[in-house]
């Protein structure tokens, strides 16, 4: 793989649809134990809003140079407004993002704490979730937008974080676009049986365990993972299944691949990992771009693995450039 081949990503256009999440980071410094309860008292330092879920997938695609149109919903609230503003600043096309009155933008507040001049670590996460489901009319409108955007795109990514957008309406359009020859990739949480015939799924190992009713620890065994993958492919009938396995790397199964799949060790070293938040978004984005650019599936996995190894060394839901992916690939080649 060369940087010039990665640069080809800039010629691609991707439609991303899914759950948009505001990542709220609250930074603090520990001071002392509280007299009121056995808890730490912390001093507020700062706070920021970042992009999570499908919004983070879109950011990763833009960081690699591709054109991106993002489709989804946010609430008519401060978090939704700030999230869209951030995406606009990064040149993500947010014309397909709808503001829904009465809907609360899903927000994950992560409290990060560290002494001065030390790396911050997450000590608490608080999730604010919508109290009401997305109305069917809104889902149908997003599906119509996807049908239009998908026809003009080289690839489509559905990013499901289980907030209710990626249901039957989106699935029907995804199947249609895949049938028309588009690269369509689902990063799934639920309802996978509705996405039959698409190009690929990119679940993590916990999701594979849930979809196949298999204890997660059993999937550390490559033979058990192969059985679960075969079962999942039999249900969804997609071309490829990319399983992200945390510090065990990735595994790829599917069309014209060995029955045992293709496994790759995690890029980088576990001791250097700073934050695994968003690594799956990066993997999905890079894997999809590589397939759309004509890379062989195993090479697409290697690219996705290298990119994931880059972002876990950064705090929060991060992105990586083509040059960073290339550097990571070189390091993997040297260590091998």
Structural features, described:
Strands 5-4-1-8-9-10-11-12-13 form a 9-stranded mixed beta sheet, with helices on both faces. The chain has 10 helices and 13 strands. By secondary structure, it is an alpha/beta fold. A hairpin with a 6-residue loop joins β2 and β3 (40-53).
Strand-helix topology:
Layout: H1 3-7, E1 13-18, E2 20-33, E3 40-53, H2 54-63, E4 67-75, H3 78-89, E5 93-100, E6 107-113, E7 121-128, H4 136-152, E8 155-159, H5 168-179, E9 183-187, E10 200-201, H6 205-212, H7 222-236, E11 240-244, E12 250-254, E13 262-264, H8 279-292, H9 297-311, H10 322-335
Parallel strand pairs: 1-4, 1-8, 2-6, 4-5, 8-9, 9-10, 10-11
Antiparallel strand pairs: 2-3, 6-7, 11-12, 12-13
Helix pairs in contact: 2-8, 4-5, 6-7, 8-9, 9-10
